[in-house]
Design a protein that fits this description.
The structure is a single chain. The two termini are 23 Å apart. The protein is α+β, with helices and mostly antiparallel strands. A hairpin with an 8-residue loop joins strand 2 and strand 3. It is 24% helix and 23% strand. The longest helix has 19 residues.
């Protein structure tokens, strides 16, 4: 998500390359919190304040990658586009179940 430009990409529209070692299946029965739920929770936990302090000039990633992060949780990552800002990244971990 890039709130500054009103841009959202989802799943197959993602322009990032998959890791060289491939993706593993995620057991959807284990996921009771959706990506949208995780984003709402992160916003309540401080993401909204962070985003607004950056005047929406940021990117927001919501990722579930258990083998990469070594936890079964959504990573909600706010990334400031201003390279001079010392606090360019803020992340929240939201349990997926």
């Amino acid at each position: 998500m890039e709130p500054e430009y009103g841009y959202v990409m989802w799943g197959g529209d993602d322009y990032r390359r998959p890791p060289f070692f491939g993706w593993k299946d995620i057991n959807l029965k284990e996921v009771t919190v959706t990506a949208e739920d995780a984003l709402h929770m992160a916003e309540k936990l401080g993401g909204m304040n962070t985003r607004q302090s950056w005047e929406n000039k940021c990117k927001i990633d919501v990722q579930l990658w258990p083998q990469g992060f070594e936890r079964y949780a959504w990573r909600v990552n706010y990334w400031n586009n201003d390279i001079s800002n010392e606090n360019r990244m803020v992340e929240f971990w939201i349990p997926a179940k």
